[in-house]
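ugh ok fine here u go
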Amino acid sequence: MNPLHISKVAVACSGFDALRSRQAARIENGIVSVVTRYKPKRAEELIGGSLFWIIKHRLIARQTILGFAETEEGRAIIRVDASLVPVKARPKRAHQGWRYLTAADAPADLGSGDGIADLPAMLAGKLAGLALI
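structure:
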């Protein structure tokens, strides 16, 4: 059975590089802890899936979900792999709460067999930011 995925808005991030910088500051033992108000109801199905990040109304990157925890204050912690993987940009409206994605609905990783990996990184980033790749 394929794992389930979720999407989350990267609040106040201007692009992929800003998200990468934010994540780098939170890495501990190869894991990034994303603190959020509520734990997704389908949390067990999400382990092994991905957290897809929305910036400027587009899904632009993903991180593998490793597990869940809780803060002392009762907030949820989503533990994700520190590797931030760019994906083929896909329009996605900002939302509150959780939006689940099946494997069929999730965008593919950027450069997965389409020649995009051969582009210079700066050009690929600009094209992805414009949702052209």
